[in-house]
Amino acid sequence: MKFVVACYGTRGDVEPSAAVGRELLRRGHDVRMAVPPDLVGFVESVGLPAAAYGPDLQAILDAHRNFYSFFFRNFWRVREISRLSREAWEPRLQCWQEMGKTLTALADGADLLFTGLVFEEVAANVAEYHDIPLATLHYFPLRPNGQLLPFLPAPLGRAAMKFQHWLTWRGTRKTDDAQRRELGLPKAKDPSSRRIAERGSLEVQAYDEVCFPGLAAEWAPKFDGRRPFVGALTMDMPTDADEEVASWAAAGTPPIFFGFGSMPVESAADTLAMISAACATLGERALICAAGTDFTDVPQSDRVKVVGAVNYAATFPACRAVVHHGGAGTTAASLRAGVPALILSTDLDQTLWGLRVKRLKVGAARRFSTTTQETLVKDLRRILAPEYATQAREIATRMTTPAASVAAAADLMEDFVRRAG
């Protein structure tokens, strides 16, 4: 079988798709990946052939961060929010057509096109043009449902999500129709999410059912297995720092992990000072994963260790708690490790994962922009209470293992192609 895997976004967006692609390649299939230019090297390093797909990521990340930072602080300033929203979307719209052409060529002769969440619309049009099955990958419940927004009654939650899909489609409709016109497809009459479902696509839910109780039952009658839950998809790749970190962690009390993903924090110095002061107040040690933030020129202390990257699966179980940005993969890793979490979110999907961690009673959540030394101390004291550790360990027993998740996703892809054939 020939699989084309298209995914755009940060390392956290690309790794789940690469994990499935690598498993399909191991099973003897022909796999081609399309990823951002700055992640081609990462994908090739795990043995997968990759083509550059869209622009370098940094411009889009900067616009995305500016929008959500302003939105959460100034949600009533409609005019400024509208301007920043346009600035966040314009880079995506400008590269839409080029990405469509790249993917149309790659997918020629494919048995299945597998797409991540970002630019899902581009891939849906290409799959329709080639008349091949489409599989999508979701890191949280993207499609309308009554479980994602627990503060709303279920019917109102579904209606709000449907309206958001319609609003997004209205903003991208001209660009969407331009791609469809170039492919010889008719104008779209509905949002891409509805078109994807109506084509009978496979919509893989890359998180565990335990995170959203009741969601599987809500979707089961209508979608008949086409929205399966497989658990988070990761490769759990070792890093050069793992052995050193394990030795440091074992030499004292279990540390608190801090990591904020690929998007850099505004001030590395201020963030490190806040973490150091909070941990000193609590008498705790801190392990900081720099990832997308440059901490090289920031002074460190004996109780604070900074590393570039670590293997979460190996490191989290040795920690008392995990403080992170709320990315789907990091959230899943903390749940699998059975340790409490504090999510300091910077955008909407991270905020939703923060709400989920609170609802599962395994941690707390706050926006990163409103976090201070005082709030950090307060939140850490809360999640370090014994009842949070107990609940986190219980939830961990109900999480799917990384190997089982990847195998289940690959099985679904193969079966879907066979049934379509």
SSE inventory with pairings:
Elements: E1 2-6, H1 11-26, E2 30-35, H2 40-45, E3 50-52, H3 58-73, H4 78-106, E4 112-115, H5 120-130, E5 134-138, H6 154-182, H7 192-198, E6 202-205, H8 215-223, H9 242-250, E7 256-259, H10 268-282, E8 286-289, E9 304-307, H11 312-315, E10 321-324, H12 328-337, E11 341-345, H13 348-359, E12 363-367, H14 373-383, H15 386-396, H16 402-420
Helix pairs in contact: 1-16, 3-4, 4-5, 4-6, 10-14
Write a structural description.
By secondary structure, the protein is an alpha/beta fold. It has helices at residues 11-26, 40-45, 58-73, 78-106, 120-130, 154-182, 192-198, 215-223, 242-250, 268-282, 312-315, 328-337, 348-359, 373-383, 386-396, 402-420; strands spanning 2-6, 30-35, 50-52, 112-115, 134-138, 202-205, 256-259, 286-289, 304-307, 321-324, 341-345, 363-367. The protein has a six-stranded parallel sheet, sandwiched between helices. Helix 1 (11-26) crosses helix 16. It starts with a strand and ends with a helix.
Range of strand content = 5-15%
Distance between the termini: 11 Å
Order of neighbouring strands in the sheet with most strands = 3-2-1-4-5-6
Provide the residue-averaged pLDDT: 89
Write down the CATH topology of the largest domain: Rossmann fold
**CATH superfamily name of the largest domain?**
Glycogen Phosphorylase B
Q: Which outline best applies? A: globular
Number of helices: 16
Task: Name the CATH class of the largest domain.
Answer: Alpha Beta
Low-confidence stretches: none
Structural class: alpha/beta
User: At CATH's second level, what is the architecture of the largest domain?
Assistant: 3-Layer(aba) Sandwich
Number of strands: 12
Q: What's the helix-strand series?
A: EHEHEHHEHEHHEHHEHEEHEHEHEHHH
Largest sheet: 6 strands, parallel
